[in-house]
Each structure stands twice: as structure tokens, then as C-alpha cells.
């Protein structure tokens, strides 16, 4: 019986470690103040230019937006499209299919956030 408990504890520790590692990886890629906001705006807007994207995300500076877009592009969440055939050259950003795999996660976070805000207001804790 005791040996079985040790095996179960060992298995639990391994699974917990795997889950923590996976969550850390996810937070590393989409964490921070701006990344999810950028992803949400891009998913809702379709093709969008830099200045319009900046206007849609209250409080973000051009420098931070530029850096965040580069990170998101490196991780496959954003595609930068350059229309060089036009004068002046137009650059648009679009969300990728990979970025849209986050939709259920974003929706779950949104629902949780609404519930949490309601609980705080009602002092349900």
C-alpha cells in the first residue's frame, strides 16, 4: 500500500512538473501587458495598419508596439504584410491561423475575468 502511494506521488509530481513547464512556456510567449491585447485586436480587426493598431490599444507606445509585434511575428502569431507596389508603401499586420488557436483560451480568460470581477463586486469571497 505504501509503495503504491509513493508511485502515485511520484507520478503526480511528474505530471505537475510537466503542467507547470507547459504553462510557463505559454506565459513566456503570450504573457506581459500587451501581447494578448494585440492578438485580440488583430483577431477582431483583420488586416490593420500600425497606427490604427496603436489607436485601438489604449496607452501603448509606438516603440513597445513595434517590439511586441516583432516578438509575436517570431512566434508565429502575427504576419507582417508589406504592399510595396503601392506608393507610399503600406504595411499591415494580420493574425495567423496559429494565433486563432488561442481563441478558446482568450474566451475562457474573458469569462473567468467577468466572473472574477462580479465576485469582487459582490464580495463573494
UniProtKB/TrEMBL annotation:
Gene3D superfamilies: Winged helix-like DNA-binding domain superfamily/Winged helix DNA-binding domain (1.10.10.10). GO terms for molecular function: DNA binding. The keyword DNA-binding applies. This is Transcriptional regulator. Residues 16-121 form the HTH hxlR-type domain. Pfam families: HxlR. Keywords: DNA-binding, Transcription, Transcription regulation. InterPro entries: HTH_HxlR, WH-like_DNA-bd_sf, WH_DNA-bd_sf.
Amino acid at each position: 500500500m505504501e509503495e503504491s502511494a509513493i508511485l502515485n506521488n511520484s507520478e503526480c509530481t511528474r505530471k505537475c512538473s510537466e503542467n507547470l513547464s507547459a504553462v510557463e512556456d505559454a506565459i513566456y510567449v503570450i504573457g506581459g501587458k500587451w501581447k494578448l491585447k494585440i492578438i485580440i485586436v488583430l483577431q477582431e480587426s483583420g488586416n490593420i495598419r500600425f497606427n490604427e493598431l496603436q489607436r485601438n490599444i489604449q496607452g501603448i507606445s509606438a516603440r513597445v508596439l513595434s517590439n511586441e509585434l516583432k516578438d509575436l511575428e517570431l512566434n508565429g502569431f502575427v504576419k507582417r504584410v508589406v504592399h510595396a507596389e503601392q506608393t507610399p508603401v503600406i504595411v499591415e499586420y494580420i493574425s495567423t491561423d496559429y494565433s486563432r488557436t488561442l481563441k478558446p483560451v482568450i474566451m475562457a480568460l474573458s469569462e473567468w475575468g467577468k466572473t472574477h470581477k462580479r465576485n469582487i463586486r459582490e464580495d463573494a469571497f
